[in-house]
Design a protein that fits this description.
The chain is of the alpha/beta class. The chain contains 17 helices and twelve strands. Helices cover 48% and strands 15% of the residues. The strands form two sheets. Strands 5, 6, 7, 8, 9, 10, 11 and 12 form an eight-stranded mixed sheet that branches. Helix 14 links the parallel strand 6 and strand 7. Helix 4 packs across helix 5.
């Protein structure tokens, strides 16, 4: 357990220093010191600690008058508190290994301190839980500014949305209907001992997450992993065979593949991150599709556009990711209020540039995985005020203010479909 605590604490500390949890965990795993089972435990501890960081910090602040200057020690204590409160690990083992971990990082002098803090938590746990329940940041485990923003925007729904954001996300699959109907894939899963439910269109939700290698047909492109909310996008574009389609921020390629599953279109997949663009190629190869894949900044038209109008454009825009915190709990602690203005500027630059490539009667679908109004409804109003030839479609689920709030079934997304008239 000590190795698990140390690796998870290092990942948490890295996030609190400004790095993504994915990158932080990758760095720990590349050291090659952990078994597959330990890696899974480190990942669970890292994700769990960040999901509940508001509560854990609240508790630690009340147990410790003066925190150690060593940030690594603080991260170990946060991970150990997470294990004591939320995991099934034996309390004595958590405390014992945490004390040893602190000794390995902070020296012998801090071992009695760590032991006292964790045992004090066990003695006072109920009182601390009661106190935390009356503090918004501790109870919800979101930054104060985030809580205030969502309450102003969503009213009474806000707290429920944030509570859902602290749950483990479902594992949802997208069945490739070119190869198999979803209901038949559910039966195939059942035959192999996997419980699953067909929830909508191509979306199938697993009862319990499994590694993709165990999914029947995954390697052959029968099925992909994609949130049910993310699967809405391709359907809204009303794709027809022979159309020219641009996926403007394509990596890692989930929506690119879905569009090609739905229609025989001429696909261009564009992304400015050349490294992440490799995943688009890998995903399309697994699915058996081809596309023109190009590394370029979508706002720099001269670097990639040949002047041929495009029938359909999907702009899955860079955003705060405030709708997908179940999958990326680090986002809550990495984002700052001022970051929203930066994302909004990027989104506007992309919208303005990409509208130029849309053919007459063509369509552009603007998508974010944000639930913040500044990146969604306000962007729609801004765009329509600038482009007299843009009509916001109100068919399907894509009404003005097409906000899909997070639920037990899916993450949070926003869709706005514009037609050039």
């Amino acid at each position: 357990m000590q190795q698990i605590q140390l690796a998870a604490a290092a990942a948490v500390q890295s996030v609190l220093s400004g790095h993504s949890l994915t990158d932080a965990l990758d760095r720990e795993f590349r050291k090659g010191l952990l078994t597959d089972q330990q890696r899974a435990a480190v990942q669970a501890c890292g994700y769990g600690t960040l999901r509940h960081l508001g509560f854990l910090r609240f508790v630690l602040d009340r147990l410790v008058k003066r925190k150690p200057k060593n940030d690594k020690v603080v991260s170990i204590l946060l991970v150990a508190l997470y294990q004591l409160q939320y995991s099934k690990a034996a309390h004595y083992a958590v405390v014992d290994h945490a004390v040893k971990s602190v000794g390995a990082i902070g020296g012998r002098t801090l071992k009695p301190f760590a032991n006292a803090v964790l045992r004090e938590y066990l003695r006072k746990r109920q009182d601390l839980l009661d106190t935390a329940s009356r503090d918004d940041v501790a109870r919800l485990s979101y930054p104060r500014w985030w809580i205030d923003k969502l309450r102003a925007q969503l009213g009474q729904q806000a707290d429920l949305v944030m509570e859902l954001g602290n749950l483990h996300p479902p594992m949802t699959l997208r069945v490739n209907r070119r190869q198999l109907e979803p209901v038949l894939y559910v039966s195939m899963l059942a035959e192999q001992g996997f419980g699953a439910t067909w929830i909508s269109a191509e979306a199938v939700r697993l009862d319990e997450p499994v590694s993709v290698e165990r999914l029947p047909g995954f390697a052959d492109g029968v099925v992909s992993v994609q949130d049910a909310g993310a699967q809405i996008s391709a359907h809204l574009l009303d794709l027809q065979p022979g159309q020219h389609v641009l996926d403007a921020c394509a990596a890692p390629g989930g929506k690119t593949g879905h569009m090609l599953e739905l229609a025989d279109v001429h696909m261009t997949a564009l992304d400015r991150d050349c490294e992440r663009l490799k995943r688009v190629t890998e995903n399309l190869e697994r699915l058996g599709f081809r596309a023109h894949i190009q590394c370029a900044d979508a706002t720099d038209l001269a670097s990639w556009w040949d002047g041929t109008p495009v029938d359909r454009v999907l702009l899955d825009a860079p955003c705060s990711a405030s709708g997908v915190v179940r999958r990326h709990p680090d986002v809550k602690w990495l984002r700052r209020p001022e970051d929203i203005a930066g994302f909004r500027g990027q989104q506007r630059g992309l919208l303005d540039a990409l509208w130029q490539v849309v053919a007459p009667n063509g369509k552009l679908l603007y998508v974010t995985c944000s639930i913040f109004r500044e990146e969604n409804e306000e962007q729609v109003d801004w765009f329509l005020s600038r482009h007299a030839d843009a009509l916001l479609e109100t068919r399907h689920d894509c009404q003005r203010g097409g906000l899909l709030l997070p639920s037990k079934e899916h993450d949070g997304f926003f869709h706005a479909l514009f037609e050039k008239v």
